[in-house]
Give the backbone structure.
Amino acid sequence: MLLQLNNIFKWVNAGGQRTFLLKDINLTVKEGEFISIMGPSGSGKTTLLNVIGMLDGFNEGEYHFMDESVHQLKEKHRANLYKEYIGFVFQAYHLIDELTVYENIETPLLYKKFKSAERKALVADMLDRFNIVGKKDLFPEQLSGGQQQLVGIARALISKPKLILADEPTGNLNSKQGEEIMELFKQLNEEGVTILQVTHSEKNAAYGSRIIELLDGRKVSL
Amino acid sequence: MIKNYLKIAFRNLWKNKTVSAIHIIGLVTGITCCLLMILYIQHELSYDKFQENGDRIVRAIMAYGRTKDDVKKGNFTGTKVLTAMKSNFPEVEDGVRMYQEPTLVKKGEHAFNETRFLYADSAFFKMFSFPLLKGSATEALNAPYKIVLSFTTAKKYFGDKDPIGQTLRIGAGEKDYLITGIAADCPVNSQIQFDFLASFASRQAARTEPIYWSANYTTYLLLRSPGSIHSLQPKIAPFMAGEMAAEGERDIYVNYELEPYNQIHLHSPYDSFEPNTNIKYLYISGCVALLILVIACFTYVNISTARSLERAREVGMRKVTGAYRNQIFWQFIGESALLTAFAIVLSIGITLLLLPAFNDLIGKSLSPSGILHPGILSGMLVILVSISFLAGSYPAFVLSGFKSVKVLKGAFHRSAAGTWFKGSLIVFQFVISTFLIIATMVMQSQLHYIRNKKLGYDRDHVLVLPMDNKIKDKLDFIKKEWKQNPNILAVSMAGELPTHIRGGYSLWGNTTPYEQSIMVGGNVIDEEYLRANGLQLIAGQDLTEQDVRDASHGNDKDNYFHFILNESALATLGWGPDEAIEKKMFLGGRTGEIKGIVRDFHFASLHTPIQPLVLFPENWGAHLIVKTSGRHLPETLAFLEKKWQQTASHRPFEYRFMDDAFSKLYTGEMRIGKILSIFSAITILLACLGLFGLSAYTIRQRTKEIGIRKVLGAPVTGIVHLLSIYFIKLVGVAFLIASPLAWWAMYNWLLDFAYRIEIQWWMFAVTALGAVIITLVTVSFQSVKAALLNPVKTLKTD
């Protein structure tokens, strides 16, 4: 078991009313799974992903990640945990505009204090693997959306995470580019990386081994 | 890691070149101005610090008058005060009498008119720390007709030859002086400046029986200990009362006030051999420098903060990829430190480049090495650290603390507190700018007023030439010869110029007792003085050549004087103009009668009201005043030079304009006026830069709003209006705060002048209008651009 959510609630108070973003979510993810989270806009998909990614907190419930009780951890511990084991892929890529492809991929290693030689080797591997060696000195704005997302995934993978959280990774891409990215995810999954993706597309969801459907913050059983 | 930070810092700067340039230029300007001012202030404060005995030397200020409560004061004394003090007070170890006089120096056939020519007693080199390169400190000036040259002067006259033992021919009397020493050049920050230092014993006055009167000399005393001034001062008044009684002076009060040598340059109202600087103007300069620095820093912090908002996404992303908060903190602080350090280095470079021009502007010679002063260097460090932290603090503290999810979404935009904070920075900057604009305007108006005020005399096209006994002997001939030129209207010999008459006398009528005499300013003139200076006679007659001859018998018994009084003297005596004419009067020891009344004119600076004045002939003078028509001036000068060489060949032909003598009265005011004008222009520029940078960002943050408004049908003008009104409001608030402050400050400054302008309402109106226009122009650069953008583009980005 990689992670487990027990009775997770998250809400905001607006205008004296409590609006639930997540309501009684129970979820167990095993290592090596490829899960797609689906649901209409506003159903809480991204919120759920952020909670799992520890970027966002929750109000009630228990969250266990690799034998750690996340809900009891201090902010700093939690941050260490996600930095160690989780990689993020965003719909809008979120690359740093002022850094080149190479430097963008390198950034997480810098924060993990890898030695220069090690960093070089790791980034070179990654560039090679994604076939973007020729683009390493380009800036994000000089790349197509698909290529940017490739860089985004490469950056997420560079620190060898156990879990990849992808928030509509193909949302900004055309269908061909999207397909390539999904194939890549599939391949990564086969190599042992656990993947949780949020998607709107039935077709992309089908790449996963399991689908979770959300509606108004609630898990809908299929 | 650091390389990565550097890269991103540099690329960020490069991406927004305009804003980056504004960003750095602002800070560089601020620091440069501040550095220049500090150098100036440092220079002024360093005056005389090199004097090892500085804390034991005092200058005697003579206070004299009818009673203790009605005294005049001056920095000149008679020759006796030194000897009297030395022999009567154990506190006084030694002393020096000094005298400065522009003097003719001849070596062989070559003659030079030397202005930095001083006489001093033999203790000079013992008292003062002017090192002698050659010669003996005790013997160099211990007898008449000995002279010490400065190093540069020795080079000028003798080149590489050894001047010791040679002679120079000094003065119109052409006495040979033996060169006994070479002194190192005087430091520029010394109140005593000389090229020549002749033994005081050479002067007639030193040899004749010492007297307290004829106050022409500066007396410095060397005390046994710095504290003796306090025990010595109270003893002088009773001692002098005894001395006066012994000399049989009726009811004359004389006292000497001791001024510590180190305080003279900045605190004394009486100039030394080099003009003093009013400490008040140093305070003003310091404040202005500090304000500029503060403005520059605020602008810098303001723009930095605004710029960092753009980097929010980067911060979020860095956190997601594993950055700790303190790593982001140091990234931004480091980036800001790097930029600040760059700005500081650039400022130092520019300061050094600008220093010569700045020296010209303020008429000083500041040395670039002053920048190495530990105070300045540590100041730089303080600036570096504080600006780095202030400018980097917003991204470092606030952004780095945000939740990455929020920052990535860009949900942190515009907190109310942040807007309020930046708004108040802008207000503060404009308060300072408006204050300085108003101050500059008032100062310039006052200086303009001084320059153009009808002073009662005419200083246009008036030349001033030196005068000595040789020339005086030929005066009648000179006058006749020169006036053959139709452009030379009058030639007058006089003791002092009408710009600044310093002499003081007592005047009383022959029917009133001496006790009712009045203190008057006095000046020796001749029959052409009124004409040469355009003075206006309102009653009686001008002097004639006969009147001058009547007063030129050489002893007071045979002399009969004709006096010309000014209106103030008349008012003080309580007489009407016609009533006064031909009244018999005494002026000191001179007997005579009133011959004419002249309209009041300003014979001192406008800081003081017009005092009573007597003009009288006495057959001597220090200046030749030549009134020209102003037409064909070059030809007239050539004519004068030719005539000069024929009749006064012993002296080089050197002239100056009376207007320059007049300007000298206001050196301090003009310097501060210039500095203020330039600096207020710079603060306005800086404030504009700040406004420009800030508006750019405020508007960028509102692009979405602008897009939506445009889709909803808002016209371009409406949007520009919307964006400008916020800034106009800020500037308005600033104006309301600054106006009363400026009024109060300038009102007090003007109180220093006996004759001054009124602060006018239009000065404020012009400032307000100017501020609004500047704001509009600055903001509209950005707002018009934003308003013209296609909303499709702006709305797509989110």
Observations:
- Chain A touches chain B at residues 50, 55-56, 79, 83, 88, 90, 94-99, 103, 106-108, 110-112, 155, 159 (CB under 8 Å).
- Chain A has a mean pLDDT of 88.
- Chain A has one domain: 3-220.
- Helices of chain A lie at 45-52, 75-85, 101-111, 116-129, 145-157, 175-190, 202-205.
